[in-house]
Amino acid sequence: MKRIFLILIFLISCSTSFAQWFAIPNLTTFDDRRLHFGFTLGINTMDYSYRHFNTVYDNPAFYAADSIPFREEIDSVHGMIRSDIASLVPGFTVGIVTNLRLTQNLDLRFLPGLSFGNRKMSFNIPIHDSERNGIQKTNQSRATFLDFPLLLKYKSKRIVNHRPYMIGGVALRYDISHANDLIRLKKTLFSVETGMGWDLYLQFFRLSTELKYSFGIGNTLSSKLPQQGQYQYYQMSFKRLTANVFTLSFHFE
C-alpha cells in the first residue's frame, strides 16, 4: 500500500511538472523589476574540513597547558588523536531575500538569515564529559549563526514558467551560540559559496529551489581552548580546521 501511495505521488508530481512546460506563462513582468524582496526557508548540514597534527605532542599548546587530564589515554595512541564526522545532522535556515537586477541574466542577491546547525563528531579516544559524569561515544557541537551572503545569480533563458540558474559569491557568518564544546571556532567565519537552482514561476509568486555549498576560508579554529566540561587535548590535535555548510533552500519571491 505504501509503495502504491508513493508511486501515485510521483506520477502526480510528474504530470504537474509536465503541464507547467506547456502552461500559460505566469508573472511575465517579474524579471523586469529593478528590486524585489522575499523570504527563504532551508535545510542545512554542517561539516568540517581539517588537518591534524601528526601527534598532539607536535602542538606547542600541548606543553603550554596547565594540566593534561587522562594523559595515559593520549599515550595509548602515541599522541595520534584523530577525529571524524560521525554523521551529518540536519539543521534549519531562515532568511530574507533582497534581489537587485543588474542585467537581463544577472542579479545581485543579499540573503541575511539565521542558521541553526549541529556537528556530530567522534574521536579515536574516549570523549570525557564531566558535565554528564561519563564517557560519550560522540560529541554534538550545536551552533547558531547569523548569515550574511552576497551572491551573484546568473540565469539562463526563461522557458515558459521555468528558469535554471547558477549562483556564487561570498558569505560572512557570525556565531552567536555560547556552547563550551570540544572544538571551538572563531566567532566570525568567512566562506565562498557556489550552487545551482531552478526558478518556477507560479500564479502569485516565484518559487526557487536551490542547492548551495559553502567552503570555509582560512583556519577557523579558535586560539582559545575550552575551559570547563570538556578537555583541551581534543582541540589540540587539530592543525587546521574549516567549517563547511551544505544548504537546500526554498526562496519565495
Provide the helix percentage.
Answer: 10-25%
Sequence of secondary-structure elements: HEHHEEEEEEEHE
Query: Structural class of the helices, strands and pairings?
Result: mainly beta
Please tell me what the overall shape is.
elongated
Look at the structure and give the mean pLDDT: 84
In CATH, the architecture is Beta Barrel
Regarding quaternary structure, how should these chains be classified? Answer: single chain
Domain count, please report it: 1
How many individual β-strands? Answer: 9
The share of residues in extended strands comes to over 45%
In a nutshell, what does this entry contain?
This protein has 253 residues and is mostly beta strands.
Task: List key phrases describing it.
4 helices, Porin, 253 residues, 53% strand, 9 strands, mainly beta
How would you describe this structure to a colleague?
It is a single chain. This protein is mainly beta and 253 residues long. Helices cover 14% and strands 53% of the residues. It has one domain (2-252): Beta Barrel (Porin), CATH 2.40.160.20. The protein has helices at residues 2-21, 60-64, 71-76, 233-236, and strands spanning 35-52, 83-101, 106-110, 113-129, 134-155, 162-175, 188-201, 206-216, 238-252. The longest helix is centred in the first third of the chain and has 20 residues, at 2-21. It is elongated.
Fold topology:
Layout lengths: L1 H20 L13 E18 L7 H5 L6 H6 L6 E19 L4 E5 L2 E17 L4 E22 L6 E14 L12 E14 L4 E11 L16 H4 L1 E15 L1
Antiparallel strand pairs: 1-2, 1-9, 2-3, 2-4, 3-5, 4-5, 5-6, 6-7, 7-8, 8-9
